[in-house]
Amino acid sequence: MFAEMIFSVIAFYLLYSIFEKTQASEIIYLAVFIFAVGLDSIRFWLILFDMAFTYSDRLIVCQNLIIFAKVIAPLAMMLLVTMSEPEQRQNIEKNIFIIFIVSLLFGIFIPINTGSLLPNFSCNHAYHKGINSSIVILTFSSLLLLISSNNKKGISHKVTIGFGLMEFGFQILSHSISIAGLILGVCMLYSGTFLYLKSMHNVYLWNYS
């Protein structure tokens, strides 16, 4: 939770520093993913402001935002893989708007049980098995599509490895209820992001130098 907040600050800084002059679609979709990770850290604020164990409108809004983040993160990564070609660049705003609305609808209309607080400080909600299963399928699909795409383009496997660590690291971190799971999720998320950013930077240097 706190690690997600620190991660989002560091990741946005690196993203801006490394790709400041890059107009690639991947960077914009990655920024949406990083935003979602930072938003999920709202669970930390529930503890900090003692809202976790008290029923309030603020608790409901926070849980709505947690569901929103959980949904938009894998959608952004799927767009990163499938909609990052130069000819798709004009559709970036439309694509982001669509996944924003879809995620917002999930966040607002999924019934939340504020009386059932999980150890990771997110509340139980309706259809959680179906939503979580869909997220896992979407995450695996993104990774498989990226593997296929990068193999065709001859792009380094480090990009794929970083992408996978980043995606699954966030999923583990956002769902974990154990210290071991939190540590594993943090390590995967941080190392995967740094590896992905460094590898993509090398790809752009090679292609545009």
Give a quick rundown of the structure.
The protein is mainly α and 209 residues long. The chain has helices at 2-19, 25-40, 42-48, 57-82, 92-109, 128-153, 157-175, 179-208; strands at 112-117, 123-125.
What does this structure look like?
- This protein is mainly α.
- The protein is 77% helix and 4% strand.
- It contains 8 helices and 2 strands.
- The chain has helices spanning 2-19, 25-40, 42-48, 57-82, 92-109, 128-153, 157-175, 179-208, and strands at residues 112-117, 123-125.
- A two-stranded antiparallel ribbon has the order 1-2.
- Helix 1 packs parallel to helix 8 and helix 2 runs antiparallel to helix 4 (57-82).
- The longest helix is centred in the C-terminal third of the chain and has 30 residues, at 179-208.
- The N and C termini lie far apart (39 Å).
- The mean pLDDT is 86.
Number of helices: 8
Q: Quote the beta fraction.
A: under 5%
The low-confidence parts are none
Distance between the termini: 39 Å
Mean pLDDT: 86
List SSEs in N-to-C order: HHHHHEEHHH
Determine Rg (CA atoms, Å): 17 Å
Major sheet size, sense and barrel closure: 2 strands, antiparallel
Residues in helices, as a percent range = over 70%
| Number of beta-strand segments | 2
Q: What is the spatial order of strands in the main beta sheet? A: 1-2
Structural class: mainly alpha
Principal-axis shape equals globular
